[in-house]
């Protein structure tokens, strides 16, 4: 076995989940998914496809119908370019994570330097490592109010002509950090000079609560990029359409990359199931019935949880502008993996340890607030408060 | 973009299919799939899962129920080891091709030497190339009767201590070549000495017509291997269960590799959809309702097509013992890609060019005989005969 594969970071979230195995009544906020089932009409589209027998191989890049739907969706959010422009820049992938892995396969030679802004979900660091890259992380820092912020100058200084690829995830999992349009423009301009590719994980684009953009979504690199920029944007059906378990996402690519990525899809998964793609097509066509309501609900979840957490002595957190996570520091609990394990066993509260997302986030905990019933969040906050008072 | 990705072989089968785009009435035998829809009861299991809302993330290595079903299936075919032995050696993957890619990711460093026996489906060569390996191919040769045969001594001589991985696909796509148990034992013994991993693509194991084995299946490396051998066997639900479009397969691994492969799954696709895994579980549980009838039917297909092809002047082929392909040489048609394009346009016959599978198969054509209606095969053979007489 390759040493790099052996040394890939174990999922610390999984480690906490294992600590809670067999325990009853645990309130689980550790994984990055809502507890809400995919809407009926999306599931029904998959069922209809199965009933008519769509059980055969499909094209590597995805069903044309789905790619057209994605093109329309992209145009609606980023109207600078026509719908038709997008079709040839879309590759449907077997999940957002699969799209990100394909991007690393397309760009990263063994020995290449890759820069990743952290904290970030572990996959962003692991994927270029699997391809043999030397990964350097550039950590966000914590402001006085507990918000994670980026030192733009430090980031730009760390990206040099030796940097093949820069990977960012904003709105960010776990911190809720978002990029401004100006920062995106500055990063892109810098990377044009250094010849560095930008891989932007924008799967939380729609889960944005700040109401300070024209489209309601978080700022996107697409809004400041030229069609031929060295930019790949990764998306997923998981978060905005409540479709985590379907394993479907897409990449937006410079046109010249679409065909090669199609070849990589052939050699990785060949294609996504047609019945899954039919469901996703309907999800986009009737997206107004899902995403706006979901965003409103997530905002209510955030606004339920964050004030309750802030009232707890020793908790430090800033209100996240996007995403679906409350990321907070617990005073005196620097070994957050141990804390998370104790919380699940002693308080019946399932959170993810910050150290899962980068060493700079040791002492932090991630709480996914995507919960159908916001009362579960209040109940969880009460468990945390009680545990801190009595057991910690 | 990486030069190796740019230079990955285009799918020549796709090129032929494109040549037939928009043409009516083409008899298509070019892809490696049956034209039969997945059986009702398998689709119904997926539908039931969707109806009860199984739309969430699942474990990296697959549902325990499915892994148990695979363990039982493996034990039935290879009874040397108990069912319980297998569970910890199983990783469920997003298709057989995905399993093979994960195996390359687990084993192959950039610069490593990988040996692939060809002709083979192009993915087996492309995957280690994507990981940066130096791939050497060891070609089968053609015997007097048109059968593709392996020179065992030549293969063993080509695998040295410098060889990290040996990849073989038998029963073979496209040639129908199979390995004998003695050959498998000799290869394994040799690879033990050189420290070389063996990656055996055995997805056609069940599609075997020779009736010369105890289990009715083709000889498998599992029957000659020790549990800790450096051996990975790749399987798929596609061929034996008529589930090509579902994208589900599995790997049988040395126990020490299962957990690391689970990490790789996290970073590639995270998991396969639960509803797909439910369907696969039922497919295995009620496999007797699918596979034996399918094998019998495929044998009838083979026995319909092969004699008809052999009657055609200029055609050379041996009867394949396994798989679902008739692979034949057409005298005087050395540019088989051009021939395949002409056949689709001029004769309405869709075949795959042999050169798609290795340069040594130039001048050959692959015919997938997995057809619900064997009369389509006879009709296709008649088109070939007519075209050769009048147009070629």
From TrEMBL, chains A, B:
Annotated Aminotransferase class I/classII large domain ranges read 36-384
What Enzyme Commission number(s) appear in the record? 2.6.1.-
What are the top taxonomic ranks of the organism?
Answer: Bacteria, Pseudomonadati, Pseudomonadota, Betaproteobacteria, Burkholderiales
Keyword line = Aminotransferase, Pyridoxal phosphate, Transferase
GO molecular function term, any single one:
pyridoxal phosphate binding
Listed transmembrane segments: none
In terms of SUPFAM superfamilies, this protein maps to: PLP-dependent transferases
Offer one Pfam family short name for this entry. Aminotran_1_2
- Which InterPro entries does this chain map to? Aminotransferase_I/II_large (IPR004839), AspAT/PAT-like (IPR050596), NHTrfase_class1_PyrdxlP-BS (IPR004838), PyrdxlP-dep_Trfase (IPR015424), PyrdxlP-dep_Trfase_major (IPR015421), PyrdxlP-dep_Trfase_small (IPR015422)
Alphabetically, which GO biological process terms does the record hold? amino acid metabolic process
Q: Tell me its family.
A: Belongs to the class-I pyridoxal-phosphate-dependent aminotransferase family.
- Which source organism? Hydrogenophaga pseudoflava (Pseudomonas carboxydoflava)
Name the UniProt record assigns to this protein: Aminotransferase
Instruction: Name the coenzymes or cofactors required.
Output: pyridoxal 5'-phosphate
């Amino acid at each position: 076995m390759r040493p790099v594969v052996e040394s890939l970071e174990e999922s610390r979230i999984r480690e906490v989940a294992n600590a809670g195995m067999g325990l009853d009544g645990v309130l689980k906020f550790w994984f990055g998914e809502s507890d809400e089932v995919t809407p009926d009409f999306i599931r029904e589209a998959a069922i209809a496809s199965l009933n008519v027998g769509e059980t055969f191989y499909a094209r590597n890049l995805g069903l044309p119908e789905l790619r057209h739907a994605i093109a329309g969706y992209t145009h609606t959010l980023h109207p600078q370019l026509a719908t038709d422009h997008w079709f040839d820049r879309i590759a449907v992938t077997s999940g957002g994570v699969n799209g990100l892995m394909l991007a690393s396969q397309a760009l990263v030679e063994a020995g290449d330097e890759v820069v990743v802004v952290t904290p970030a979900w572990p996959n962003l660091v692991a994927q270029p490592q699997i391809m043999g890259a030397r990964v350097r992380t550039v950590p966000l820092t914590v402001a006085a109010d507990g918000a994670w912020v980026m030192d733009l100058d430090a980031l730009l200084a760390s990206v040099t002509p030796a940097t093949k690829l820069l990977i960012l995830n904003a709105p960010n999992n776990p911190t809720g950090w978002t990029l401004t349009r100006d920062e995106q423009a500055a990063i892109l301009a810098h990377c044009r000079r250094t010849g560095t590719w930008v891989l932007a994980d924008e799967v939380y684009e729609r889960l944005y609560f700040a109401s300070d953009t024209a489209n309601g979504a978080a700022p996107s690199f697409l809004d400041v990029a030229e069609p031929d920029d060295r930019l790949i944007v990764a998306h997923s059906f998981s978060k905005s359409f409540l479709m985590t378990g379907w394993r479907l996402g897409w990449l937006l690519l410079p046109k010249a990359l679409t065909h090669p990525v199609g070849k990589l899809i052939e050699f990785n998964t060949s294609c996504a199931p047609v019945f899954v793609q039919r469901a996703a097509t309907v999800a986009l066509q009737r997206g107004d019935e899902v995403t706006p309501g979901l965003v409103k609900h997530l905002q209510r979840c955030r606004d339920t949880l964050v004030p309750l957490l802030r009232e707890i002595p020793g908790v430090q957190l800033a209100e996240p502008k996007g995403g679906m996570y409350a990321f907070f520091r617990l005073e005196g609990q620097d070994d957050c993996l141990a804390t998370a394990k104790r919380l699940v066993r002693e308080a019946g509260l399932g959170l993810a340890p910050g150290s899962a997302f980068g060493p700079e986030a040791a002492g932090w905990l991630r709480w996914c607030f995507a919960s159908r019933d916001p009362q579960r969040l209040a109940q969880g906050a009460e468990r945390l408060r009680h545990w801190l008072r009595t057991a910690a």
